[in-house]
Amino acid sequence: MSPSEYQKNSGDLDFCASRIEVVFEETSDIWINLPPTKLIITSERTGFRHLYLVTKPSAESSHYHVRPITAGDWPIVDRPIYVDTKRELVYFTAKKDTPLEAHIYVASYAETADPHSVIRLSELGYSHFVVMDEKCERYLDWFSNIKEKPKCGVRYFEWDEGQIFPKVSETLGIFVKGGNEEEEVRSNEDKRQNERIPTGEFFNFKNSDGVTIYGCLYRPTNYIQGKKYPTLLSIYGGPKSQMVTNDYKYPRLLRLFLAVHLGFSVVLIDGRGSSDRGLAFESYLKGRMGTVELDDQIAGLKYLSSMNMGIDLERVAITGWSYGGYLSLMALAQHPQIFKLAIAGAPVTQWELYDTAYTERYMGLPGENVEGYHKGNVLTWAEKFPDGLVSYNLCKAVITRALFIFRELSDF
């Protein structure tokens, strides 16, 4: 399906499709008693990913009916859902209370249920990852925040008489592995002091369009109030990614933590184009990758500088991998007044030579978006890289890699 063929259905789904694909098949030597047919799906038709109940056609209709289970300006997270068919409840992970934390919620899919009636079951101040049993009676909760190590515990559901939604019982114990024996970690602040793991500080600001942008700042280990420090902006900036979240970052950000110990201020910003903020926020880069993502990043750096938070705008480096490497190169070429150094890992350089399904989803077809592909090409901006041997070698490496891929494809 080409990008121009995308459609959104609302209300009903056509039962008499012209093309049929078998997704499940069951056989029996006796007979098969057909159960009531219900299907739960997710959709972003409202601009935010939500759950919908699909029911089979009635005798008077050939259309499947679609009804929302959840609704609102917040997204369901792409994780497993758990369905209690006995009580007609569905448990899911979402970012309803804050885009920085993933929580477990419950909603009813009963006929009379209100899609806005959604109950959070997990504790605020942490990000949660949940695995639930088949009967939806208990679950394993793995949770952490930016300051505290991951903790893990089993939680149980309890129902008061006449209540639709459950309550979560107190955990009998929260344990993680500690050497050869399990160790209680309800309070581990004293251990953090000895590990010297940097703790980030969340911040947010309004960009030029009035949209709230979230970021995280790691001040250098030797930080002195009022002093400016060389700054490293760590970036991804592309679709299906969110860097600024309230969960434990060690050892994922180990290299960035080393920079903190070496005296750098380290900054992460989730600008428009990143995920879990709704379709409008994510689709800001549609058709113009590499040309708009850096606006929010630069605005965030300037915000931190204006708040005297240790950012030196005269000494800013940028680093990233894959899409982040791509934007690191673009930053050096498009905004040399801000970025003095780029460390780019495995960057995309020319979208025509990248994965077709990924590229055309976000950029459209090359023949229909000539300007977008041209402006999003690193080689288009190559002459704007700073002068010097280092930049020359960078451009040479980019061009050599692109030509190698092109020749391989041509020979094929």
Number of separate structural domains: 2
Radius of gyration: 25 Å
> Overall mean pLDDT score?
87
Q: Write down the CATH class of the largest domain.
A: Alpha Beta
Give the strand order of the largest sheet, numbering strands 1, 2, ... along the chain.
15-16-18-17-19-20
Q: Biggest sheet: strands, sense, closure?
A: 6 strands, mixed
Strand content: 25-35%
CATH architecture title of the largest domain: 3-Layer(aba) Sandwich
Annotation field: number of helices: 8
- C-alpha end-to-end distance: 25 Å
**Roughly what percent helix?**
10-25%
Number of strands: 20
The CATH homology group name of the largest domain: Alpha/Beta hydrolase fold, catalytic domain
Model description:
With 412 residues, this protein is of the alpha+beta class. It has two domains: 3-177, 8 Propeller (Methanol Dehydrogenase, Chain A); 197-411, Rossmann fold (3-Layer(aba) Sandwich). The protein is built from eight helices and 20 strands. Belongs to the peptidase S9B family.
Features:
412 residues; alpha+beta; Methanol Dehydrogenase, Chain A; Rossmann fold; 2 domains; 6-stranded mixed beta sheet; 4-stranded antiparallel beta sheet; globular
What's the gist of this structure?
The protein has helices at 189-195, 254-261, 279-282, 294-306, 323-334, 356-363, 370-375, 389-411, and strands spanning 12-14, 38-43, 50-55, 63-68, 82-84, 89-94, 103-108, 119-120, 127-132, 138-144, 151-158, 167-168, 175-178, 181-184, 201-206, 212-218, 229-234, 265-270, 311-321, 339-345. It is globular, with a radius of gyration of 25 Å.
